[in-house]
Predict the structure of Acyl-CoA dehydrogenase.
Amino acid sequence: MIASFASPKLQALYEPVQQFLHDHIYPNELRWLQTPFHEVEREIRALRPQAQATGAWNAALSEAEGGPGLKLTEFAQLSELLGTSPFGHLAFNCQAPDAGNIELLLQYGSTDIRERYLEPLLAGDIRSCFAMTEPAYAGSNPVRLGTTAVRAGDEYVINGHKWFTTAADGASFTIIMAVTNPEAESPYARASMILAPTDLPGFELVRNIPIMGHAGEGWHSHAEVKFNNLRVPISNLLGREGEGFKLAQERLGPGRIHHCMRWIGICERSFDMMCRRAATRELSEGRMLGEKQMVQSWIAESRAQIDASRYMVLHTALKMQEEGQRAASTEISTIKFFVADVMQRVVDRALQVHGALGITDDTILSFFYREERGARIYDGPDEVHKASLARKILKQYGLKARR
Amino acid sequence: MIASFASPKLQALYEPVQQFLHDHIYPNELRWLQTPFHEVEREIRALRPQAQATGAWNAALSEAEGGPGLKLTEFAQLSELLGTSPFGHLAFNCQAPDAGNIELLLQYGSTDIRERYLEPLLAGDIRSCFAMTEPAYAGSNPVRLGTTAVRAGDEYVINGHKWFTTAADGASFTIIMAVTNPEAESPYARASMILAPTDLPGFELVRNIPIMGHAGEGWHSHAEVKFNNLRVPISNLLGREGEGFKLAQERLGPGRIHHCMRWIGICERSFDMMCRRAATRELSEGRMLGEKQMVQSWIAESRAQIDASRYMVLHTALKMQEEGQRAASTEISTIKFFVADVMQRVVDRALQVHGALGITDDTILSFFYREERGARIYDGPDEVHKASLARKILKQYGLKARR
Amino acid sequence: MIASFASPKLQALYEPVQQFLHDHIYPNELRWLQTPFHEVEREIRALRPQAQATGAWNAALSEAEGGPGLKLTEFAQLSELLGTSPFGHLAFNCQAPDAGNIELLLQYGSTDIRERYLEPLLAGDIRSCFAMTEPAYAGSNPVRLGTTAVRAGDEYVINGHKWFTTAADGASFTIIMAVTNPEAESPYARASMILAPTDLPGFELVRNIPIMGHAGEGWHSHAEVKFNNLRVPISNLLGREGEGFKLAQERLGPGRIHHCMRWIGICERSFDMMCRRAATRELSEGRMLGEKQMVQSWIAESRAQIDASRYMVLHTALKMQEEGQRAASTEISTIKFFVADVMQRVVDRALQVHGALGITDDTILSFFYREERGARIYDGPDEVHKASLARKILKQYGLKARR
Amino acid sequence: MIASFASPKLQALYEPVQQFLHDHIYPNELRWLQTPFHEVEREIRALRPQAQATGAWNAALSEAEGGPGLKLTEFAQLSELLGTSPFGHLAFNCQAPDAGNIELLLQYGSTDIRERYLEPLLAGDIRSCFAMTEPAYAGSNPVRLGTTAVRAGDEYVINGHKWFTTAADGASFTIIMAVTNPEAESPYARASMILAPTDLPGFELVRNIPIMGHAGEGWHSHAEVKFNNLRVPISNLLGREGEGFKLAQERLGPGRIHHCMRWIGICERSFDMMCRRAATRELSEGRMLGEKQMVQSWIAESRAQIDASRYMVLHTALKMQEEGQRAASTEISTIKFFVADVMQRVVDRALQVHGALGITDDTILSFFYREERGARIYDGPDEVHKASLARKILKQYGLKARR
């Protein structure tokens, strides 16, 4: 924790959560990565009492909503800690995409929806997913959508083709981004968010997309899904028609903070492993790996880059918290590509320091290496964020740059 | 092909091999990567007549040995072509580690060994492996070995623990690097190479090491193995006692060329995919991905780096061919780290240009990304090669640099 | 200014100083760089009333000492602003090396020394220098010193050879680091700081060292100096004998903050010029330079890196301020190499965006490019700081790494 | 020399030239850099007999033209050698821009022009310049030109504003790129090359542009020039009207080879100095700089990158030589940005290894550092070459990328 960002509330939670991770998560994570997810889920659910005992259950929520009531800057630091393991957030019921969906339902769900979907979600009894990206359109331009929701009486009839619908496998419901108002002038006013249970006949889970050698399963998967005349009541609309992007935007800012801090957690875990290896691996009689200057430079550069990342993300969170998400929009673009790049470098160096061991599954590093490669792509590739940030800056210099 | 490195003999083989890859390998490779290896092996063996018809079967061997009789510079360019698919070399029976073992048996195998092991290897009927690296010692310092072979009458009794024994699973025999002369003054004169069948009781395949999420199987695996009082006749010694490193050294130079050219093949394949994607992916109405200057810079830099790599490797091969392996020793160090670095960059860029598709298994790129991360580690990490090269250079300036 | 680091006191000074720079410094700096320094000095001294009117004269000092009484975190942000021009600090009498010398004299100068040297220094009427680095020893190992000060009655007799004695040309006195206690066990307890006027016969200014094409002159120079039986009263000793490194250390921490913030000022100036150019340079009919994605990526990456640098430096300053310099020692190492690297990248990109204009002296960029290359070397090369940081970290993992 | 690119003719010249550089150039170059150019010129002209005795005078020319008759691949390697000093090419009368002008006059000059201008140029008695770049238009788009040449009777009347006219100061004539056919459909057919003596009243040398702190002088300068109703006979036209770009293109290919090889010479010189320093600089008792792994990695990476550069350039030269300039057009784009980047890295590393000494003018490195920064800008910035190369490649994939 950074002194100026610490708080008594956060400090009270931090140590118990750290202890929980050491006791229940780190010792199991390599095994869990090779175990069918429904078994992992059962084991993790069995740990719920201990997780709840730390006070950090539903860590992102206010006290009224059943969480610890952390400010964004506080939750951010907890998110870093949870991010040190692939299963950290899951154990505390604040994993993507459920955490974001919870926010949406809290704010926009009807009483009925809240009872039927939000309650069990908050209890960790069901999971959900979020269907946005489509294979036919570049993810870098989110307003191009082929999925449509057409009103027919009291129902929406939804048709479309999505992919990278994270955790769809086993989810109880999905929130779908679909075009409801194709005639709206602004492309940002054409889509809406609609909740749909996954057990309806029109919901087709085509496949879990094999990624980096694994199709994955359950929460740990990214699905291709199709909606074939999927019919849901119009009361499943979240917010109003045409507000899809507005809601997505609201979901985006804090989500970006969560993600970036999770990545920093991955960095710190990798950094710790790199140092431990460097300090203990003997190269030849009495010469340790950590005495090599190239290894030292990696350690020093990683330390600097991780610290820089954390400062940037926490200050972005602080600005969002104090001045609102809109005021922090350039910062929100910046942290995405900055931290994703740092993560890839740090993980790569840690892996290299481990030599042949690094590419095996005997450590968590090879998982980070392949699994988190997506960080530079998901949620808009880095290049799009860089270009977008530069255009915002250049606009202040009078340039009307085209996309 | 580079004009100045082309030759009629190479040109006669090149096009048929290219055709073979297009007809039989590329269309199957993604499926094969998700198929049990023994089935893949059956399919690939069934393609043997067509492979042989190209004239490139046993591509690294002389005509006397049943190959096409290519010079090193010629084979190098064929190796690049075969390297464009993970299954290219296998289809032509010139895959590692068998190709290197064939060289050893050709040169050092007794008549008996050649009949029993070399013949079926040349025919592609069996596979083999090579047991060198040990988990207990840093791979960067190959003379530190714990495996011993002690003479007991007409036999060697071998004990030891190896890992990263590529393709041990299903191999008929292994060549083992073991200490036979612990008392030799030079650490380079203590070890020997000994052939051992894998069906002896003292040979224990502990596991196929899970690497980047996959334990692999058959040829496509890296095993941890133990030798528990493994007994083989002393006639299984290759060369003389204490010559293990000398033989390894001989095996190394051409092997390095093969590997680097295979990596360049991976680069060219990735580059081609990157360009194809850039030229055809629409970002928005009429704007193509390839019009973006960042993508253009990746394409240009990749082109330059791949070409630079090829020139360096071919000139290294030329020097080995004309002046001997010893004369080319600094070049052999150089190409390892230079080309491995280029490959990682090119594959990473190609993947990024593919966006979310790039991390899926719907293209070969994610396989290259994770599978070839080992290139910077196998065979001595890059850092060791850089330091070693620098020490050789600085010696000419009068510096006696310690390791 | 970063909201969480702003303060009413700083805000009150900031705008007037900014105005002063726009009115009096920026319009003159290119001309001053090509004008003999004594004329520049005269012009800048003539601006003293206006500079004092801003309230920021002697900006680093407490109110008791005649400065504005800024906290370190506040002064740091002012230092960034002043750093946007090579003449900013000079105009406010807080330039290196005088600012550091003022600190030393304030704390360790006798009444006599304070009257004779400190008073005119605070008034901006004289300049001073600091003689530490020696050509015969690597700057990366500061305890190796050849300069000696031997007591002879009431005097020290000083002999030695220094270089990179910044601003010695025209300085009224120098502070010399010299070995007084060669027999001390710890190499850190052998040297002392001694003040010497430069008009004594034993003080020889050998030359202003030509650097990047210019020998420089006056404040803007780095001298080679020799002490030939230079005799000064023993009362010119600062602190006690053997405390030289202790004093240097105290001088180092805040000095590092000043430097790094000055570098960030250089970054912001370069960034501003890069954006202005990108927004206004036409490539062809209606196509502006800033629409090019490579330029956009440089702008975005620069923005991110500059912001990251500022957060790191300000948090380091905050830690020093609240927990003391010792507590912040790893941070002090980190910011040096991190910010120096960012500065070189940002200046290089800004220069490149200016095309041929960038290498001319028609903008300040070519000056930054060549003049600030030293940042990665002065004060210990980056590599030394990285290795030192890594050793501190690895010590926590149990490694006793040798230098 | 690379064995496969050596030749008896080249070898016969190489050693004497190397000896000449060691005897007459290296010992003087630092002094010359601080001496008025007309004095340097006098000294260098005095060395002409010794230079001619090597057989390499007018090194780029055929035997018929009074040169040694080297092939492009041979001259390239000589150019590398000459490039190790800023004065190497000048001593052998093959310096830019004269070498290119000689080519133009040889091919397109009338008998009269050849007598009046070419003869003394070949003898090294006069110098010339080439006026192309204009401050008002981005150099990256050479067809945008404001300079015009209008026929008036037997004369062209030339008006325009150029800058970066290298070596105009003291040149006897210039070749001017000017628009003669503004109505031509293709922008590539609008300009012509016209020779103009510099002693005519309409030729105004506005200033030598201060670059990296120096306005320079004589051959070592870049001028801003204006043509104010400059009148020259129409027989001063080189080639035909509208052929300006065709001629420039012809001049470009070999010129690029010369430049890139000169840069490689700079790399080799810097590399040699880096190694010498690393091998001899003591850090502490018995610990040498070259034992540090970071320095070793710089040496290794530099070795690899320089070798890669040389192979690429020589193969490009070979292709031009055997298949013509047009066939090698992508290679010619590639080497520009690849080698310029390598040069900047190698010089930067060599400088860093020299510590504080590196930024002084006591070695040649600081000159290379600042003087050669232009390499990434002159002749089209790297980004333009990268984009252009990528567009050529993508065209083969069916993309019609706009500029």
